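The freezer alarm interrupted the setup, so I double-checked each line after restarting. Inputs confirmed:
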Amino acid sequence: MFKWIFSLLLILASSLIGYKVFYLGYTPELMLPEKGYRVRYILSGESDKTNINLKAYIPTEDFRQRIFDETFANDRFALQIDGEGFLRQAVWAGAEVEGPFKVEYRFSVLAKAVSWNIDPSLAVSENSTQDLELYLQETDLIQVQSPQIAELLKQVVGPQANVLEIVKKSYDHIVAYETLAFKGSTSALTALALGKASCNGKSRLLVALLRRAGIPARVVGGLVMEDDRKRTSHQWVEVFIQGHWVSFDPTNKHFASIPYNYLKIYESDQVLFSHTSDIAFDWSFNINSFVAPSANLHRLKETELNALDLFKWLDKTGVPLGIINILLVIPIGALVATFFRNVVGLQSFGTFLPALIAAAAQETGVWWGLLGFTSVILVLSVIRAAFEKLDLLHTPKLSAMLTVVVILLLMFSVLSVKFNFTDLSRLTLFPIAILTLTTERFSLTIEEKGLFKAFLILFQTLVVTAICYAFMSNLFLQTAFLAFPELTLFVIALNLWLGRWMGLRVSELWRFRRILLKSTT
Amino acid sequence: MKFRQFFQTIMNAENEILGMNRRNLEFVRKYNKRCDFPLADDKVVAKEFFGRIGIPTARTIKVYSSMFELRDFDQDVSESEFVIKPACGSQGKGITVVCSRNKQTYQTAGGRSFTLEDLKREIVAVLFGKYSLGHPDAALIEERLVPAPELELLSPAGLFDLRIIVVNGVPSISMLRLPTRKSGGKANLHQGGIGVGVNLATGVTECAYFSGSLIQKHPDTKAELIGFQIPFWKDLLDISRRIGEHSPLKYIGVDLTIDRKQGPVVLEFNARPGLEIQNANQKGLRLLMSGKKTG
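Predicted 3D structure, all chains:
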């Protein structure tokens, strides 16, 4: 019976996946969700003037990057968006701003990696068909007309070369320069003189060389998106080749290509942030990655016999993908928690508590999740001790504790917003009832088995939660489960298998070690 | 060589030790039907069962199942020595032993003095489920058992009990559980009692396990723990066997004791007996059972 059901699940899941891959054409590139980024500009400072202006270039959509969910937090400023395309700028004007201020601009990005092929026989004279004089001109920092640039070009490229050769040799020359950390604007000549430069110096020198050779080129600026809070932007180069602006990054070595985590914000040599002088000003980027449905998904919806496609239905209900994502990874977490209970033999409060806390922590990040969980349990057990003094009946006491959990979570949210830990405010997704029961168990364990044992189990709970989190936040698993929800059948099958597994738990090997060691000697 | 031996030990461990996974699936689930659990879980029901099959237990003085019955506590319980037990408590939780009485003051074995009101409040707590996860419970008042004189030195701080695991009517492994000062008079191993492995055939104690290590002498009285012949051994085995035969639950832990006046009596039985008995005996339960099958 067991074997039948077990095999049935495996066959069913495999054939559904096989059907999707081989018949419906669910290729990984088509199906797998993309990694996107949620980006936050944080502009803060302090002013004793009453009239101040803050400006920041903000990104725009193009053929490779999609910008959405834009929101602004304007503090006491009036916001105006100026300019278009890659010269779009947010301008915050503050008339009565005194003391500390902080404005934010948040948006989500989905960008594609792109690479270009350059025709090796393309001559410079055939390349620029349009009127692109602007991108051949000298600027203050890109000294195209300087004899040093002419000299370098001759040295590096030599006479009589086609576009690919010029670009390749100039690029290779600059790539060899040592990269410095960003320190103000470096001109093309300064970079040349030093033989080393930061990203903007390298980019300007490359642009200067190419312009000198008669190939239109420009410095562009933006952001390399990584899960991080960072205070650096990035600059690279776009070169006009056969009607396209082709990306080159001599700093991070991307030749005629641009990775998916590059966000282009402005074109031509601009200053990303500017502000009224004489105020204390600081800026940073806060970047978090997320999984988003593939932009190719709509193509699947048009294929025939696609009732199996979960997304089609979810789209109609308006359920956000993030919720589906969390829902689909909870079984993974539960499986991990089960494994640690039945195979490793770790004790944890509540069978599925680690999986649920880890699910809630998908929104807050693992550390805030663990910290939030621990503090709720500890604070609540102190309050429970006070309730206990009142000689209360069991259920009303639990109900009062549950209410305390709600209040605690709301307090955490308010405090986190106040102190700018925005991630912590998502703690409200915590499983309230389960936290209540867990605190009850925790407190009973203190009473029955002592403080040490209770904290030992709490610690094991945290460990299992962290491991659940590692699995549940794994991008590969997330995307796989989003593309093939049939995998949940595999999870059931694995659980059934664990349900029949009667081996000794690792902890039991330790518990009965004396007997085992005695019998071998 | 050393590593190979270690590896071998781990590979063989499963054939020797009964673990939680196998206990739950191959023993508790296989031998005990869910619907029969209340027979073992509720001490009042269990005592009725013992009475039906003619097995001696501590005399029940009174069972309280609602608060208003407590009005007549004075008349119901005239004894000066008695024990209050939650019917559905586990691991010895919520047990109050009254060992002497001076009019309205009750002295507990734990050294506390209770007024009549205190005692009633304790019983109300039992009724409201303080020791049974909030489920309404009954309070069982029964006579106090006193360990037989032979065991006085081994059981100075409370009442010892003898656990025998009976599988399908066959006693399979047994241990003596001795309370210590550390355990507060309770014989439960997780609360600091001593587990003493007993030779099933002879009733002679073989090894003693106390908070994770093997000991020779009782930590409180220094009495020798090994080589002690448990009196009434045949009777004790018989009782456990009879319970095993008559009970619909077929994988059980029978808890017995030897009272000064009545001799062997059964205390209760358990449908999910723990695994620590293997440490007390320094023997794996699986090895013992496979030995029985083949030889």
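Quick read of the result. The first helix of chain B runs from residue 2 to 16.
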